[in-house]
Please model this.
Amino acid sequence: MTDQEPMPSPPAPSPLDQSAQFVKGVGPARLPLLQKLGVETVRDLLYYFPRSYADLSDQRTIAELQPGMLQTVVGEVVEMEGRTTASGKQLLSIVISDGQDVIEGVWFNQTFMARQLAYGMRVAFSGKPNWYRDHWQMSAPRVRPLRDDEATSENPIVPIYPLTQGLHAEAMRRIQRHVVETYAEQVEDCLPLTVRSRHDWPDLTTALRDMHMPPAPSRAEAARRRLAFEEFFILHVALTIARRDQQQVLAAPALATTEIIDAHIRQLFPFTLTRDQSRAIAQICKDMASERPMRRLLQADVGAGKTAVALYAMLLAVAHRHQAVLMAPTEVLARQHWRTVNEYLAQSRVRRSLLTGSLPPRQRRQTLGEIRMGQVDLVIGTQALIQNDVEFSRLGLVVIDEQHRFGVLQRGKVRQLGPEPHYLVMTATPIPRSIALTVFGDLDSTVIRELPPGRQPVVTKWVAEEKRANAYLHLHKELKRGQQLFVICPLVEESEGHDTKAAEQMYAELQASHLGAFRIGLLHGRLDDGVKVDVMNRFRERQLDILVATTVVEVGVDVPNATLMVIEHAERFGLSQLHQLRGRVSRGPVRGLCLLFAQATSPETAERLRLFVKTTNGFELAEHDLRLRGMGEFFGTRQHGFGSLRVAHLVKDQDLLSQAQADARELVQGDPGLRLPEHALLRAQVLRQYGDKLNLAAMG
Ligand code: ADP
Ligand code: MG
Model:
């Protein structure tokens, strides 16, 4: 830009983008506390919603109180007393009377409560009363002083915000009340009017007000649904645009299969591909035959045979003199793929390399050089390494294994200067449709449900602790017959206050038990990669009979002779995770056995475990898991790509999700670049939230 050109004037800054510091009641002292909650700006505060609400609308006279429910009473302060208890605690007691009866509020170590109160003052107590000796008592009730003429409260629904150490509930409520009163008017509703009126949603200002200060619980839920719809809608506008962008890219090499190539690849496998595998391959071949880069998600239940499908695709690329790469999340898994692929390719001249962290630097440099020069056709390695270090000469296909840990495809991209490669993403966790649509909305999806012939479903049993000795006896017998056993524990070390059977402790216990005669190995996340690989190898080569392991075996290790599994503290695992674990003992022709030990089971846990014992359908288990444990737990990480879904729930709000998707598609079809003036706000919002993540080129 030259000096003569006028500078474009920057858009007027919105007061909502100011630092939260300038909100009344925040200031430099409280700002760091808010930052801990992820709040930087006024807008962040406005979108920092209550976790729940306390409904104080149930107001009664003291005579009408019921024990144990949240209720509110109003009365005059008739007694105030502070003293120190025998155990050294500060006890504050305040008694109020409603003219007929009295009730006592008690607080421990909160004598500051007394400061806002005085004899004769009218106050409201809200809490759960209990009958103590001869009178009603509330432990640490909410107290509100009332002016003489004031009713209990203007708004009996009190928001409960998630807090952090040093930030008090009441201070947060004051801040938020102020934010809503001052700024809710100023938000700009990015939902286009056509969409808003179609569903009769409240406008954004009303919705935000009702989230923070709902006049009734139903209003809060209506507001939440409107905001949830908006979250889904913006996401799907972004996804729809991203997909259109992708479909216009004609950069990938067209790698069509032929009868000769097909026959040549199939004869490498020691088995006939299942119908589902062949169907998946047909879809992949169709994708790869096009210059439009493939972006396909391959979901398969554990043991359904993804590796063969992935290898087919890689060999198809190689047949066209392109390179193919397979990225695994861990060294153990990269090596396992390497071993499998080498078995299939024993008679083949395909040039291949393994690239992992434990490769000596010199060899690594050499391998990287060969890949760059195009002297290697097929590369297998860990994701971290490949994304950071590798330059390819003619990359045609990227296969990403276990991608659900990383979220949208963008994060799995390989550095690539030349044409775009095709992408195939594999996951062993069956993903409910709602999630597939959302997290993987930029991918096409293929599902393999059918297991290879001759597989027998694993027998799963939940064993009571008293029956442990019996169970060991049975395992003893099976081990004697040459089977191998996984023992899975949830944590590495005894953590404070939990009676977790840590892997190390379990290892010691087993050695002392009558299974101690067998050869036992130990595998957990804190071991070096080299040690891990070594222990895995010894187990695979049957130099070990029993492998005590944390969940490192979860994601795909393959030891066909291991048909026995014990899962300790099964209550700590999600259903999908349990399903993955169990999948490890159904790899061969012998029927697998999976024994669960669980402790302190709540009714929900018991339900979960019973369902797990009953069904071996991974999709059913995944849906259930999601419903019970929520998305973060489901993905076992906060990196699940749902940062922008704050109030929307993928299970509860499925109806909203499909409406939002339909509306988004229709809108983008009519205005692909969101150039119409009535879409300007939407456009800004989409770019703000997803511009980087989805690489929305066409909107740039
Ligand atoms: P996953 O989808 O869990 O990664 P794998 O690709 O590791 O499954 O395959 C699991 C096992 O099934 C392997 O031992 C593999 O050799 C075998 N397998 C795969 N496809 C077939 C098939 N069509 N017929 C028989 N066995 C198969
Ligand atoms: Mg696998």
